[in-house]
Amino acid sequence: MPKKRGGARPGAGRPPELTDLQRLQIGAAVEQLLWQETRAAWARADDAEISNLTDGELPRLWEEIWGAPIADRHRVKIGRILHDAAAEIKESLQGKQYIKGPTRVAAGIRGPTIRSVARDASQHWGQEVTPRMVKRCLDEFRKMNARADIQLACDGIAALLNWLGAPKFDFGTRRKSTGNHL
């Protein structure tokens, strides 16, 4: 009987230290924390920029609105304040009422976030979770998320084409389908 040498075979290799669910939880937690910190940093920078552009007038107007107790807000002349805010936006911000948010994770927060999640996961599950494991969990989560986004986009396109009465296509094999399913 010949012995098998090398190659992947059932039962070969080291068993995983984390379950699939744990890896998914860790990846999702890291992604969520990265974007929370990115949005918070962006909001602080955006507030400072608006304050500089409007010489502090616009933040002062918003503080006047939100600083009044809810019961007394009817006494605050909100219409006048909103009119002043609109005039300040038109004058100082050149009418720019929408500022695009962050599209990439902020620099310098990935490492500390990964280390903190590794430490918290180790304490939570009572086993060692290293920063390297957390990085791999984040990569797995992002790949899974990208596949889900692609699948949802394909399903949405297929539903739209079906609704429009276009010829049926099977997006998985990229050839014309003979059935009525997508």
Give an overview in words.
The mean pLDDT is 79. The chain has a two-stranded antiparallel ribbon. The protein is mainly α and 182 residues long. The protein contains 5 helices and 2 strands, in the order αααααββ. It has a domain at 24-36 and 107-176.
Poorly predicted runs: none
Number of helices: 5
Reported for the largest beta sheet, the result is: 2 strands, antiparallel
- Termini gap: 49 Å
| Strand percentage | under 5%
SSE run: HHHHHEE
Shape: extended
Q: Strand arrangement, largest sheet?
A: 1-2
Question: Residue-averaged pLDDT, rounded?
Answer: 79
Structural key phrases:
single chain; 182 residues; mainly alpha; two-stranded antiparallel sheet; 5 helices; 2 strands; 60% helix; 2% strand; extended
Brief overview, please?
By secondary structure, this protein is an all-alpha fold. It has helices at residues 20-53, 57-67, 78-92, 110-125, 131-164; strands at 169-170, 175-176. It is built from five helices and two strands; from the N terminus they run H-H-H-H-H-E-E.
